[in-house]
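Students often ask why inverse folding is considered easier than folding. One informal answer: many sequences map to the same fold, so there is more than one right answer. In these notes we will look at a single instance of the problem. The structure comes first.
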């Protein structure tokens, strides 16, 4: 999955969760604030033990097995 696909999927998820106005508000808050995602997520992990994090990761892996995508054929374009 490339960066544009990640962005599109993320915005689609935000729209489903917050609606159009809520999505715009969320994005504007992230942009306006000096937001450090790493520090923000750290609060989540600070309350968990290493074993809890490991168990969560193992459960996620079981529920979301890695399935490599088949390479797509390239379309030859004439310049």
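Output (designed amino acids):
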């Amino acid at each position: 999955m490339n960066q544009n696909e990640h962005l599109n999927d993320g915005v689609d998820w935000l729209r489903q969760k917050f609606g159009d106005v809520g999505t715009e508000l969320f994005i504007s808050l992230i942009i306006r604030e000096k937001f450090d995602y790493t520090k923000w997520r750290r609060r989540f992990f600070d309350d968990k033990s290493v074993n809890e994090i490991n168990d969560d990761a193992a459960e996620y892996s079981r529920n979301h097995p890695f399935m490599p995508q088949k390479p797509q054929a390239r379309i030859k374009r004439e310049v």
